[in-house]
């Protein structure tokens, strides 16, 4: 099985390139030298590619180049990585040569040029950089009832990075006041705003304005912001990702899979009852707490903007449990989460996601068109619930009528 890696603790890359745990991205460490300062930035290929495409459009005459995308084959081949890194380095050297390029806001953000400390380590977020004001990014965001106007980053000692997602990172932090540990999720306003502009913030805010509280959903204690960043102070969930455990054991016995599926279903039913569609239930968002209960993270924050194109273009990303309607970019509703529940249950029982294929395009095709093939080894009940949850037509899917009650 060569699908994803999982590891309970994720550390910042210390070597030149680093396979970010569990998501199988290679993070490239690139040296930036400008005048007398030098620093490193850590970026994924997809991020280079995005910047490159932006610049190519705006500066067609500059003949910028980055190494080509690799459509087939293993992205972790050392020779391939080496070559790619050289090409990416060259790209960066070109950027810092021309003021019209390095003064572009996207380039400045990409190269972290406005950071006084030009380095990338977990403490990067700890000190308050916002004291040096940054142009238009300093937009105040309504954090709803969770917003705590008195909280600030220096209330915490940030110990290490425990997770990295599409919008920011999650740090293990110790609150100075009482020595308690929390997981603090830090999002750059700039990135959040850049992605889908206001719509995004709205999506996020609508969730923040609701009082979301459930035993199987990560607890949000409070949130705060600086001019540049949003901080969410969450329960620190320390049992590791469910799929870390699954990967070690290949598959779970049915009674164990049933237990997790029931807890996930209960959390999803609750979210639906307060009009939140989780939408991208995926392995790395399912954590276990210290006694083995499921805790879903990452609900509601920044969902809308994550277009499927992100997934299709970053070939090496974790394939999500995409429902057919999501792949087709059709409207979706609560039933999308019941599909995902089916996918999680399937993976727990069989060790691989349904319709799995190394080639993501083919996998999408299978999700859309291939009938579900169920292998023996599970009970008839499990078999039938998988068939009903992984029903391609959302109107006939289990949960379409009365949601959780079904
Ligand atoms: P993103 O929206 O960027 O995907 P997540 O909220 O999913 O961010 O967090 C990224 C990763 O950080 C998760 O996959 C998980 O491994 C870890 N993580 C998130 N929240 C917590 C938490 N409360 N306790 C422990 N680890 C967490
Ligand atoms: Mg996530």
UniProtKB/TrEMBL annotation:
Region (Disordered): 115-150
Residue ranges, compositional bias (Polar residues): 133-145
Keywords per UniProt: ATP-binding, Kinase, Nucleotide-binding, Phosphoprotein, Serine/threonine-protein kinase, Transferase
Stored InterPro entries: CISK_PX, Kinase-like_dom_sf, Prot_kinase_dom, Protein_kinase_ATP_BS, PX_dom, PX_dom_sf, Ser/Thr_kinase_AS
SUPFAM superfamilies according to UniProt: Protein kinase-like (PK-like), PX domain
Binding site for ATP: 185
Organism superkingdom: Eukaryota
Domain PX intervals: 6-118
SMART domains, per database record: PX (SM00312), S_TKc (SM00220)
Coiled-coil stretches: none
GO molecular function: ATP binding; phosphatidylinositol binding; protein serine/threonine kinase activity
Domain Protein kinase intervals: 156-406
Record carries keyword Transferase: yes
Annotated signal sequence range: none
Family the entry assigns: Belongs to the protein kinase superfamily. AGC Ser/Thr protein kinase family.
Name of the featured protein: Serine/threonine-protein kinase Sgk3 isoform X4
Species name: Ursus maritimus (Polar bear)
Gene (name only): SGK3
